[in-house]
Amino acid sequence: MTQVPREAGVLDAVVSMVDSLLDDFDVVELLTQLTEHCASLLDIASAGLLLADPSGELHLMAATSGRTRELELFQLQTDEGPCLDCYASGRPVSVSDLQSAAQRWPRFVRAATDAGFASVHAVPMRAARTVLGALGLFGTQVGELTAADLLVGQTLAHIACVAIMQEQAPAPEVVLPRLHRALTCRVEVEQAKGFLRERLRVSVEDAFHLLRRYARTHDEHLTVVSRRLVNQPDSRPAILEAMSRIATRRS
Length: 251
Fold this sequence. Notes:
CATH superfamily of the largest domain: GAF domain
Order of helices and strands: HHEEHHEHEEHHHHH
Radius of gyration: 18 Å
Number of domains: 2
CATH class of the largest domain: Alpha Beta
Strand content: 5-15%
Strand order of the largest sheet: 2-1-5-4-3
Number of helices: 10
Oligomer: single chain
Distance between the termini: 27 Å
CATH topology of the largest domain: Beta-Lactamase
């Protein structure tokens, strides 16, 4: 099978995300795609994205794996790590060898090493002078992230920022409500994942895959499906039945 050049993969990711902005898009799905594109295109193993609420508190919006999700949450719980520093400074953070940062982030380095990571990088999500969050890039091998890889990550992060702004000027009175709306969408998705985990006896990751698959199959927004599942009991039987069939086909 012919391997697609990386440049073509990058362009395809950019076109795909920009196309989403020209149509009716779902912010949680778009940010999830952002992390997936980074994990597949860059010299890293996984990616995660943290977004700030109006008070400046960071929240997990997307992650490509369970261990990345846990590590991003660990940063928030312990208040230390590359994504927090990146968000605070508004500048990229790059650590080619995690062990060199043991004094800087002692708890994070231990947790990241235990999770199998050896290097970590973070790029800021910024709209004008406002830093919206940070994109974390995690590698299982020691090594620098090239300038080209950092540029690709930053470019995709910029597209995500445009999505959140939805073409409006990034003034504070516009930025903050949109951040709040994006975070509310994520809460609804998390609630739906928890509901599916209990009802279908699946893992949290599998619950998220089922939500995304169902939404794509039925041409609905991920957050709309999540909201119906959590808040509309009359809709649940049909959705659960369809998701059970999807889960059966996956197994």
